[in-house]
Amino acid sequence: MDIDDTDRRIVNALLGNGRASARDIAAETGVAATTVSKRLATLEEDDVIEGYIPTVDYDALGYDVTAVFHLSVEGTGLGPVVDRLRDHEHMIGVYEVTGDHDIVAIGKFTTTEEMNRKIKDLLTDADVRAANTSVVLDTVREYGQFPVGVEDEDDEDAE
Q: Containing domain of residue 32, as a range?
C-alpha cells in the first residue's frame, strides 16, 4: 500500500484523538468525510492502523513497579523465551535486540515481590544464560506516539 499525505494527516488526527469520528477527522484535515471513511477502512485492512485501544495509566491501577529485563539467551532458546515473555500478562514490551543482550522486556507489577518472582523465573529458565534487571524509578514518558511526517506541510489546507 502506498501511504500518501492524506493518509498521514488522517493518522495524525487519530493520534490526537483515537475516538474521533470520520466527520471530526474530516473537519480537522480538510478531507471529505467519505474519503476519510474509505481511507480508514483501507488503513485498517492493510494493518497500518492495528486497532483502537485506550491508553491505561497502570500506576493508577496499582501497577507501579516497572522493571526492564535484559536477557542473554542460549542459541536455540531465543524463540521459546520470546514466546513465553510475549504471553506473560505483565509484559508490556518484548524486543529482540542487538548488542550485549538478546532480549529486552518491560514488565509492570503491583509489588516488588511479584517482580522478584518473575526475575527468579527468568534466572532459572534453562534457555536464559544471563539476566540483568533494572527497576524504573520514574516514568518520564511512556507509550509515546508521534505524528507521521507529511511531505508538504504547507499544502495541508489545500485539500
A: 5-53
Burial of 45 (0-12, 13-18, 19+ CB in 10 A): exposed
Q: Domain for residue 26, yes or no? A: yes
Chain position carrying cell 506516539: 145
Pairwise CA distance, residues 17 & 11, whole Å = 10
Could you give the CA distance from residue 36 to residue 10 in angstroms, rounded to a whole number?
A: 7
Say how far apart CA 18 and CA 24 lie, in whole Å. 11
**Counted domains in the chain:** 2
What predicted TM-score, i.e. pTM, was given to this entire model?
A: 0.78
CATH number of domain containing 122: 3.30.70.920
Is residue 102 a contact partner of residue 93, using CB atoms and an 8 Å limit? no
Segment 60-91, tens digit of pLDDT: 999 999 999 999 998 899 999 999 999 999 99
